[in-house]
Write a structure and sequence with these properties.
Length: 365
């Protein structure tokens, strides 16, 4: 088991993905760590996360309860601070970097703050790994579809994150640096479905920037599945990408509104926003393999590609959200499976739904 008795560090561990990743780590599905350190700069979120797990009834989820009590530790700090990162890395075996400034408009208005977290913070991790006497065996960087052909600050900084992590393989050859790139996570903070449900609950209108807008769709657990697939199989410098469907944002809104008399209001494209997202660019296709349910982009650097020539690329055009939109029936089934709609296809009026970490059935292409 890959993570058995390992000290695992999750930077940004109080975020939507970080919390789901920590919960999955505690089940031991790829080995039960000896310790999981949740590293973030928000003490309130750390306190809430700790209390929410410690107050679980043990009979409800015995493994998670025990692990939350015995294995999970919390550390306040910021990836921007090298001294703190160096101390954090010094006895880590595996690092998952989920720390990020990820809201597109926020990064547009505060680009240097995005650079400090998404670029300098990543450089601090790589530098600390290289300077650590006992180097971690694995570092996984969490990226986004916005890093592919980036037009906004968030995507640009995440694209640089990918390059910095991949370059780390040249300077710390005993550490495997790999990346994971995926699209919109349905139940994460700031994502579109919780926003729509909140607007519907308030009586509308439901706001959409442009009617042509499409997005890739996956659940938090599918995102973690992709991370674990990279842990199991990725070679140094690889970038793992889930083969997931996409949907037109208007179709999502209409299904959630249902028969309610709630209007849709088009507000215009936001700063830095794309109409369609891309997970694999045209230029990356020639070095993209398919491994099970995932596309794997082999590294650009020739020193890391020596044993990984792609004889037959898995894609002959870019993997864009414009090309793989599900129809209304498939989308409805996904929303029902995820708990956003009830079995009759009606949006759930559940105040707890916005915080629920859902699992959507996978559709592959």
């Amino acid at each position: 088991m890959l993570l058995e008795n390992k000290h695992v560090v999750v930077t940004g561990g109080t975020g939507s993905l970080g919390r789901t990743l920590v919960r999955r780590l505690m089940t031991g599905e790829i080995g039960l760590p000896s310790r999981v350190t949740v590293f973030s700069r928000d003490e309130a979120k750390q306190y809430e996360m700790r209390m929410s797990w410690l107050h679980l009834a043990e009979a409800t989820d015995d493994v998670v309860y025990r692990c939350a009590r015995d294995l999970v530790q919390f550390k306040i700090g910021d990836v921007r601070d090298y001294a703190t990162v160096k101390q954090l890395v010094s006895d880590a075996d595996v690092i998952f970097n989920t720390a990020a400034l990820k809201q597109v408009p926020t990064c547009e208005y505060y680009p240097y703050e995005a650079v400090r977290t998404n670029v300098t913070g990543v450089h601090n991790i790589v530098r600390a790994v290289c300077e650590s006497p006992s180097k971690p065996s694995l570092v996984v960087g969490i990226s986004t579809d916005k890093a592919c052909k980036p037009i906004n600050v968030m995507g640009m900084t995440k694209a640089l994150q990918e390059r910095i992590f991949i370059q780390g393989n040249l300077y710390a050859p005993n550490t495997r640096f790999v990346c994971v790139r995926y699209g919109n996570v349905l139940a994460s903070r700031g994502s579109v479905i919780p926003l729509f449900l909140d607007q519907i609950r308030r009586g509308g209108p439901v706001t959409i920037t442009m009617k042509e807008m499409t997005r890739f769709l996956l659940s938090l657990d599918q995102a973690v599945d992709t991370v674990f697939a990279a842990v199991r199989s990725a070679e140094p410098g690889d970038t793992y990408i889930p083969r997931v469907p996409s949907a037109n944002v208007v179709d999502i809104a209409k299904l959630l509104i249902g028969d309610s008399n709630i209007p849709i209001q088009y507000t215009g494209i936001r700063p830095g926003e794309k109409i369609h997202e891309t997970l694999v660019s045209e230029e990356e296709c020639f070095r993209t393999d398919q491994v099970g349910d995932y596309y794997v982009i082999r590294p650009m650097l020739p020193e890391l590609r020596l044993q990984k020539a792609v004889e037959k690329p898995a894609l002959d055009r870019e993997f864009s959200s414009a090309y793989h939109c599900v129809d209304a029936n498939e989308l409805k089934a996904m929303l029902i499976s995820g708990g956003f709609l009830d079995k009759d296809g009606v949006a759930r009026d559940d105040s707890k739904l916005l915080g629920k970490l859902t699992a959507i059935n996978s559709l592959s292409y």
